[in-house]
Amino acid sequence: MAQENASYKAKDIQVLEGLEAVRRRPGMYVGGTDIKALHHLVYEVVDNAIDEALAGSCDEVTITIHQDESVTVRDNGRGIPVDIHPQMKISALEVVMTKLHAGGKFGGSGYKVSGGLHGVGVSAVNALSEWCEVEVRRNGKIHLQRYERGYPQGKVKVTGKTNVDDTGTSVTFRYDTSLFVGEFSFKFETLVHRFREMAFVTRGVKIRFIDERVNKELTFYFEGGISSFVRYMNRNRHGLHKIVYIEKTIENISVEAAIQYTDAFTESVYAFANTINTIDGGTHLTGLRSALTRVINDYARKNNILKNNDANFSGDDTREGLTAIVSIKHPEPQFESQTKVKLMNPEVQTYAQQIVGEAFSTFLEENPAAAKAIVRKCLTSARARSAARKARDLIIRKSALESLTLPGKLADCSERDSSKTELYIVEGDSAGGSAKQGRDRHFQAILPLRGKILNTERARLDKILGNNEVKAMISALGTGVGENFDVSGLRYGRVIIMTDADVDGSHIRTLLLTFFFRYMQPLIDDGHLYIAQPPLYLITHKRKSRYVYTEEEKEQFIKSIDKGDKIGLQRYKGLGEMNPTQLWETTMDPENRTLLLVTIEDATEADRTFDMLMGAAVPPRRRFIQTHAQDVRNLDV
Length: 637
Prior knowledge:
Heat Shock Protein 90, Ribosomal Protein S5, domain 2, Rossmann fold, 9-stranded mixed sheet, 5-stranded mixed sheet, globular
């Protein structure tokens, strides 16, 4: 119903001039104003520099984070044009930095291929920055223009001379804290992962990353390109054959792929379009997968490995243990959104399927030993998948609200609206007992686990589904598992891992995270998985009690107390040591508790980390432990 006094006349129609639309609706351009969007600002500027590399005009990009959180991206490309734009009557640099949908990527003459196809990237960064300075080295001169919240502070000025061969662009910006509100800053590791990926898919380009805040510097340069990427991802796995590298261009669309099957049980496949990681895949990824499934089935039939009565391998069968990168270069890419998470061009699927299919078929024919190893892997996978399907049918929920197979040890809640409910997965019966007594029965459910669940990194799904603790979790959640996972069946809006603050508790938490990452990843992607933070200590002082959650907090509190005063210090080694009231007050009460949301910032690195920590290869894990031994917190001795 419309408001009675609401005005809707010509005067109420707003026209947002210039970059004001970006500042008013940042979510449309960089995905929001959270920490993910903050990093997206850097990616947009770096994408422009990489576009110069794709045009063959740049072979070095340097990214520097300064002490004040400002960022400089410097390349040795051609430099943004600074002469007067014939239509706009201002410098082309100012047009690029202040006008939406302006750039050299539309007509086809400036760039054959680019990632920043919308022309809003760097201007959006400028709009969302407190200040931004662009220095252009071109035609032996150094040009400079400064902007504040998107508005130029004067015309483009010549500030000096340089060698005629010294060309390129340097963009320095400081994000606007009035828009990006919160205590967050650029994460070194997040940016490292992104720049490493860029270097892999942009062969022969050197990417330097300097973080002055922590005095760290890394340089990435890969002659092997995406083949090096697959080798990097598989360095803790055993490859069944040499890496298959494929590259071909059809109708100005370049398709590049690197493929290797390993002894792992999971798939690690990543897709790039014009060097941008399309995390939701798209037509290039569909083409790659379809080609592999078709070629392997054809080979197995032709060589009588699959008999007449045998069913074809499914896509899941042919992807077990697969590590692959597919990277396409397209003059007119179509993405699902400005944040470029999914490629939509339908012709790419046809070309990718054709190019990958022909090359992989030739590889199998010329390498019969490798072909047999791959087909054997698919056969084992198909048999295990059939067994897993039968096991899964026994434990799948009848519906989202009611089930005949809920585990007996689950203490369910009375609320049936999943957006309001929580499931605590608790370590041990003792802690489970305290949690059941201390919880709010209306919306909090408790599932105690007995001991450690199976390491799901080293087992196929059929074996995993034979584990009672895993079966109990799947039944309680109601989503199914693996290829049949359906988040719409989720019975609890929050799934909270609550383990002891000791070594065993950390191990159980890691085992659970491995399972959720490998077989219920949408649970993490959609923001349903959390980690509870129980207190480490109870400190009593002058008849008052205080819970502290970190060693640092404990030290600070003790320092604040007069030295002569007596204090009591109780270390909680297990949740079972806390009575139900204490557990509620500290860890389960929504008014007082701290929950950590589990997120995946970089799927490639998460995949590699789980493989290294939980996989079969021991040396990488030993190196990791030795490297990070000094960083361990809360270790009980």
